Each structure stands twice: as structure tokens, then as C-alpha cells.
Amino acid sequence: MHIITSKKRPRVLIVGANFGGLSAAKALPKGFQVTVLDPWPYFEFLPNIHELVSQIKKPGQIRISRRKIVEAAGHRFLQEKAAYWLPRENYVKTENGTEVPYDFAICAIGGAANFFNAPGAEEIAVGFKSVEDCHAIGKTLAMRMDSGKPFSIAIVGGGIEGVEALGEVLRRYGKRPGIDIHLIDGNNRVLGFGPPGLHEMVVDRCRNLPVSFHMGRSVRKVSTGTLELADGETIPADMTIWTGGVKPRGELLAWGLARESGEWAPVNDSLRSIEHPNLFVVGDTAGLNKPLAKQAYHAMDMGKCAARNIIRLSKGKKLTSFKPSPKPTLITFGNLDTYLVADSFSLAGPALSFAKEAVYQTVMPQFDPGWKTGRAVRAAARLTSGIWGKALPYALSPKELICLGNFRVIR
Ligand SMILES: Cc1cc2nc3c(=O)[nH]c(=O)nc-3n(C[C@H](O)[C@H](O)[C@H](O)COP(=O)(O)OP(=O)(O)OC[C@H]3O[C@@H](n4cnc5c(N)ncnc54)[C@H](O)[C@@H]3O)c2cc1C
User: Fold this and answer.
1) Which of 91, 68, 82 shows the shortest CA–CA distance to 38?
2) Is residue 322 a part of any domain in this protein?
3) Stretch 169-188: mean pLDDT
4) What's the CA gap between 39 and 132, in Å, rounded?
5) Which of 158, 213, 234, 403 is the most exposed place for a label (fewest CB within 10 A)?
6) Which one of 18, 48, 57, 131 would you pick to mutate in the ligand 1 pocket, going by the greatest count of ligand atoms within 8 A of its CB?
7) What's the domain count of the chain?
8) Is residue 259 located within the same domain as residue 233?
């Protein structure tokens, strides 16, 4: 179905302003009246928030003002949360009561932390989904470690977030007497999406460190100071860090963008909502026919694709399909190791942390609209905490990385 609008400047509403929503906003020309909604003032570079746990990065290094990004693109930013969405009437109302009618819309609201309904988890455990979460973990650890008393940390989830959290705790506190760390996961291996050898490598790196792995076990209940596993064992936990992945936000069903509870918003291959022809869904929220890993680089590509399709739709042109670009997954394990998992091969080696830093150093300036001096100052701040010099050429080229040598192949 083609939608041709007679409006001189068609109105586009983007709900959610992180990787997906902001990439879409930046790709829409000023010929559209674009409004971007998000309740939080900062764009957050989530792939590096684990570094706040060891405090090797500060919040200001992984945050950028959303208003600045959106206004630099010539659009309007409203720091408000979408509360009601009536897609058949092309209308959104915010929590503050602002009404935003539109001709085209993009939903980019990401996902919600998944606590798997474990009693006490949401109330007592600390999440791992924002700068605020990880900064709070970093500050609490620094304070508690200063006291010199024994301290137990439970990390729930052995996916990317859980392993990166463990790595940062070990980077800063691994040799501190009295620390005791537990990693719990329902799967039998950490980083289960990678080759089996990956689990062995992570465990091997922890051989002489105070870490216990509780694999193939799930959490029944979180209480203050303890964690109860489904088999009845109790684990001491002065702090529980919950890294359970994301689930669809309840709003998707309430707004009619999903058909049932727990479903991501279904889209066709041009990212168009299957229910609402002038609405696109991008990033983690998009429920594609062939599900993709919930990753920032896919969210950015989807945002650009949705913007391109809105431009085409407004001119009555055929829509283009979203073609995911294969990129390796990079997982840093503190200063102990870094893993690169690609479709056809997987590598390990601490020097690979260059690549993760390079992705951060390459992507942040793409969002940072700062004027010349400001940008230089912010870039310098980022450079001082990184290993930037050697990283960039290898950022997105695994073949070049192999040529560097000094890596172990993971099988
Ligand atoms: C700890 C961690 C590590 C990660 N590591 C990597 C990695 O190494 N590589 C990688 O590619 N990806 C990584 N990811 C995944 C990546 O961050 C996500 O895939 C990406 O953030 C998705 O982008 P998005 O724009 O779809 O959603 P999000 O980034 O989640 O943004 C959604 C936005 O919508 C806003 N919003 C929500 N509800 C409303 C509402 N009602 N009204 C208005 N706004 C709303 C939110 O405030 C938020 O700003 C990681 C994620 C985490 C948490």
C-alpha cells in the first residue's frame, strides 16, 4: 500500500531516542517535521556501560544530550514519555498530556529488563540496562570494598552482559581479599550462542580467582543478602546483579502494535508494522519474521532503513527491504581476555579489546553533534581512557585481526 501525503512537510513522530530512533531522526531530512520523544535526556552507549562497574569509564563518556543530537539534525526533541498511542488515528499522547498527531511514525522503544518473574528480583537485584544502573553498581562496589569487609556478589545471567559484568568486577576487585563472586545461569555454559570452547575459556581465566559458576541452575527467589536457587541451595549475595536480557514492553500490546502479550511488534521485511501501514518499528522492538540478535548495530541500520522507507512512502515509491549486515560480536572479559564471535570463526585474545574500544570510538562521534571545540574536548576525554591509537583499522575487519596474530581460535 502506498501512502502519498499532500502535506508540504509531512509530520514524522519517533518514539524512543537511542540507537534505533536517533539513527532514524538523523537520516530524515528537514523537509519532514520530525518530533522525537524520549523521557530520558541522554543517548546512552549501552555496549560499554559495563565499564562503569570498574569505573574505567565515567557516565559522561558514554552519554550525549538527546536534545543536541535531535536539534543538530533540524528536528524537535520532547523529553516526554509516550503514554497512549492510537495508531489507527495517527495520534500519540504523552504522560504530560502533550498530543502529537503524525503522518508517519517510528516505534523504537527497545525492550524491558527480563526478571523472569523471580520473586524479589525486580525489587532487590540491581539491573544492568542503563548508565544509571551500572554507575550505581560501580559506586556501591567502590564504597563497600573500601570498608574492607567480606563481600559476596551474585551475577545472574551468563550472556554477554553477565560475562562483561564479571570481567569488570574482576578487573578492579579480583585480587581483593574477602570478595566472593557467583555467576548463575540456567544454561550449561556461559555465552551459549558461541562455540562450546568459549565457556571453557571463561572458566579457565577464573581458575585462581574467587569465582564460582552455577551452570544449568535457575534462581527461585532473591532476598536481601541471599539468593535461593531452584534446587534449594542458598547463595550469599550482598549484591545481586541481574543481567537477564530483554523482553517486549507491555505498551506494545496496549497500543495495538503487538497481537499478544510477550510479542515484539511484528513487521514485514521493510520494517513496516503489519497492522499499521504508516508505522515502522526498529531496533530491539522490531519482531522480524526471521529474528535477529538484539544488537545496537542492527538497531542503527534499521533506523536508517525506516527513515529511507518513510521518504519513499511519502513519494509513493516502492519500499526497500532491511538487509541485516553480519558483524562479529565482541565480548570483553575485563582485562583478562576478549572474545570475537563471528559466523564462521571465533577468536580470543586480550588485544581484541582494541576492537571493542574502536567500535565505541567510531560510533560515538556519529551521534555527537557538538560544535568544533566541544567535540574535540569530548573526543579527547574518550581517548584518554581508551586504547584508541591502534584500534580503528581493526574495528570492523576480523580478517585484519587474524593477521595480527597472537589470538587463540575458539572451537
Ligand atoms: C549491558 C549491555 C551490553 C550490550 N552490548 C552490546 C554490544 O556489545 N554490541 C551491540 O551491538 N549491542 C549491545 N547491546 C544491545 C544494544 O544496546 C541494544 O540492542 C540497543 O540499545 C537497541 O537499541 P534501540 O534503539 O532499539 O533500543 P534502546 O537502546 O533500548 O532505546 C530505547 C529507547 O526508548 C525509550 N522509550 C521506552 N519507552 C518509551 C516511551 N513510552 N516513550 C518514549 N520513549 C520510550 C527509552 O528511554 C530508550 O531511550 C547491549 C545492551 C546492554 C544492556
Assistant:
1) 82
2) no
3) 96
4) 14
5) 403
6) 18
7) 3
8) no
Same domain as 43, residue 29: yes
| Parallel/antiparallel/unpaired status of strands 76-78 and 33-37 | parallel
CA distance 362 to 386: 12
Neighbours of 24 (CB within 10 A): 33
Query: Which among 314, 346, 372 is the end of a domain?
Result: 314
Is it the case that residue 403 has pLDDT exceeding 80?
no
Per-residue confidence (pLDDT) for residue 289, from 0 to 100: 95
Give the residue-averaged pLDDT of 262-270. Answer: 98
**Interior/surface letters 261-295, b for 16+ CB within 10 angstroms, e for the rest:** eeebbbbeebbbbeebebbbbbbbbbbbeeeeebb
CATH number of the CATH domain containing 97: 3.50.50.60
Quick one: 225 and 300 in the same domain?
A: no
Kindly state whether residues 336 and 255 are assigned to the same domain.
Answer: no
Q: Are residues 172 and 103 in the same domain?
A: no
SS3 248: coil
Domain containing 381 equals 329-409
- Weakest-pLDDT range from 84-93, 184-193, 350-359: 350-359
Task: Answer for the pair 340, 333: CB distance below 8 angstroms, yes or no.
Answer: no
User: Final residue of a domain: which of 208, 242, 276?
Assistant: 242
Choose one of 19, 46, 292 to mutate for the ligand 1 pocket test, by most ligand atoms within 8 angstroms of C-beta. Answer: 46
Task: Tell me what pLDDT residue 250 has.
Answer: 97
Which residue in 352, 351, 200 sits closest to 341, CA to CA?
352
What's the pLDDT tens digit per position in 301-314?
999 999 999 999 99
Q: Cα(141)–Cα(129) distance, rounded to whole angstroms?
A: 17
At residue 394, the pLDDT reads 47
Residues 234, 272 within the same domain:
no
Considering the domain architecture, whether residues 134 and 198 belong to the same structural domain is answered as yes
Protein residues whose CB sits closer than 6 Å to any atom of ligand 1:
15-21, 37-40, 46-47, 49-50, 81-82, 108-110, 128-129, 160-161, 251, 283-285, 294-297, 299
Rounded distance from Cα 282 to ligand 1 centre (Å): 11
Name the pTM for this structure: 0.93
Residue 324 is assigned to a structural domain of this protein: no
- Pair (267, 352) in one structural domain: no
Residue 164 clears pLDDT 80, i.e. is over it = yes
